[in-house]
């Protein structure tokens, strides 16, 4: 008997073949089954999406190509997983096959049945390791957990009674992680097949959280119970973690945004830590929001399993979208305003740089405060969200600056290896001995990056002695110093052990870390976010500064002497007044009022159509043609199309970029319009006016405009 499965495969976005393709086989294949199929001259991985009883209309059965092989031994991907992928492809305007295959582990795409069988055997051996019972009895270990505070217990008592998404609004240091751990424990105790997904915004937060989850759950559930899933892993590691989750051996998956698509057949709890973080929104390929998909996935898993799957969104500075949803009652808001142990948030000190020595990197009062802290054996954290030594290298005799020849941006001066590096395309050159234009030997850095601040602080604090008599030690943590494998963990260990007195870093040091000895945090060069054209800039700045402040005084005994210093040229700005009181609700109310008046998200809905081309003229011409193609679409009158404009950085790696903003008052109206527009955009690629167009993409719910 012949069967006609519909199978999704990874097809190019511009091909127009985004949906399932028809194949034939001699045995029924369950939806969700992984298969290998011919596609053109290649053999590729595919996923059976549905089973058809007959060949597609108008096709001779002999013309339908047979599948090459079914990957035996691997359970089918669940109906809930397939619905999640279908929704994401539809909502974010991507092909179904492209979406489904892109979220599977890359190493899985090249395996045949024999190779997969070997992998599964190794997985079985690893999963069969018993829990470690050589030490204390697991039950006794569980009883040594920290006693929950009254606020934590109130949240834990409320969680089982709530049947909607939960926004856990907890101050930094309030113990949100312990709530996640106990909620996870409750889910795992419900049965031997239940699973939990915990999302973090960035890779550098994974080791710390993984260590806590392993310490809590491995004694009872075995060494295979906790796995990680993020882009920093090797393809083999990612495949191993994914297979363990898919087979149900891994009870807990910790990961970054990609983990929202992990196959978890027993999923009963999704935690999104630091849910406000923009890293949850992908900025390449399918531009999905893992936070938003977490809310959708919990709903889908509940519907398909008949058992509740809960989602917890945790943050000290929730996204305005989540806060608004909780104000409307669509999310349940649970609050933990106090810090563990009764500690207080650091005192905020705003330094008016108009009254400080000209050109000073650190104001004298801030430097004196840091000297006192180091002399007492305490630690300081300095936040500057710009890596490198200086943003620009310039000649004072002519107009030359370190412009990247391939981008509309300057190359950053990195003094440590004497290079000029473009942070957009990666183009790197040695620093010239003299100005390339006029030969002047006096070329100098303009502005400051983390390298320069680290160097200056090392000099300014060289006379300061720690309590043990050793000189003050300054270190730096940014994308450059954590590039190599193990370097992040080594730097975190050095800070936790007290080997470092002052840590200089970018935004990666402000998120989620539990630094017990830090009593002073300083924010430098923060004013750029106050007057940016992007409507989300104030929200991001407030969140970054409040998160950074939360790194200080996490030890309750030192909290009363902890401080957050901010250097600014605009000390009277309302954002700093709200920050002084750590009054997020007031800040959120003010921002939401401004957004509502301007019909901006979450009160309006947006998408960007972006075009990349060889010339800016071609990119904008395609966008204008796209606007013309939309004129007679249903619902066009309810959608606003703005004129095409170049991106802020309009050229990257010799590719010109332009965009067009699309707005609608209703999410449904916007989705229907985009769905009808997409086929016309694909046809528009073939138009002679599009010659020179490299690609176009649709970004739904963009983070920046």
Figure out the total of helices: 18
Global Rg: 27 Å
Give the rounded overall mean pLDDT. Answer: 91
Strand content: 15-25%
> What is the CA–CA distance across the termini?
55 Å
Shape label? globular
Order of the strands making up the biggest sheet: 8-9-7-10-11-6-12
Biggest sheet details: 7 strands, parallel
Structural class: alpha/beta
Assembly classification: single chain
Helix content: 25-40%
Low-confidence stretches: 131-142
Number of strands: 28
In words, what does this structure look like?
- The chain has 705 residues and is an alpha/beta fold.
- Helices cover 30% and strands 21% of the residues.
- It is built from 18 helices and 28 strands.
- The strands form 6 sheets. The chain has a 7-stranded parallel sheet, with helices on both faces. The protein has a 6-stranded parallel sheet with strand order 13-23-22-14-21-20, with helices on both faces. A 5-stranded antiparallel sheet has the order 2-1-4-3-5, with helices on one face.
- Helix 1 packs across helix 2.
- It is globular.
- The N and C termini lie far apart (55 Å).
